[in-house]
Design a protein that fits this description.
It contains eight helices and no strands. The longest helix is centred in the first third of the chain and has 57 residues. 0% of the residues are buried.
């Protein structure tokens, strides 16, 4: 029984020793890989530095060498900011990929709606409103509205006084024009809704 117990302890120690040796071997392998990586990185960095110096020399750029360590420190300090910036750019790209079909559909719907409005004649009305005669009339009307104010004394006239004013050619022309305008608006409305 004691021999069995001793053998189990020896087996347990051997198993633990194997784990320790495996761990040491793994650390040695990682250290060798890291040393190889650092050696390769050093070669690449040296080559990159040489090519950068040659490119800057060809471009006739003077570089202040004292600023490089400061730039590197700032770069290292802001690695989280650069990572966040890259994540934001990826999010923006994903957002644009998600929203572009919607924008496309909205554009198509807008074109169809504009075509529908054109077919109903709404744009003809707008073109007519932009005509020189209409704009001139609107200018005169807005000027008259700005200058002529309601006056209780002047505008409180009897029916006979109003009829007398209708003998004036300007008043008759204005009333005739307003009646024709109202009639044309009614016809246009009937044509569009009909």
């Amino acid at each position: 029984m004691a021999d069995n117990n001793l053998q189990e302890q020896i087996n347990e120690l051997n198993r633990k020793l194997d784990l320790v040796l495996e761990s040491i071997e793994e650390q040695k392998r990682k250290r060798e890989e890291f040393d190889d990586f650092m050696a390769d990185a050093g070669i690449v960095a040296k080559d990159l530095f040489h090519h950068t110096v040659v490119a800057l020399d060809k471009a006739q750029v003077d570089l202040d060498h004292s600023g490089i360590p400061i730039l590197l420190v700032k770069l290292v300090q802001n690695l989280d900011t650069f990572r966040e910036l890259l994540e934001m750019m990826e999010s923006a790209r994903d957002f644009m990929a998600d929203v572009s079909p919607i924008i496309h559909q909205v554009g198509l719907d807008a074109v169809h709606k504009m075509n529908e409005l054109e077919q109903k004649g709404y744009f003809d009305i707008v073109r007519n409103l932009a005509g020189p005669e209409v704009l001139d009339g609107l200018t005169r009307a807005s000027h008259a509205l700005a200058t002529v104010k309601m006056d209780e004394k002047t505008d409180n006239k009897s029916l006979f006084a109003l009829l007398k004013q209708m003998n004036s050619p300007e008043v008759r022309r204005s009333l005739s024009y307003m009646l024709r305008l109202l009639h044309a608006m009614g016809e246009t409305r009937n044509r569009i809704t009909g």
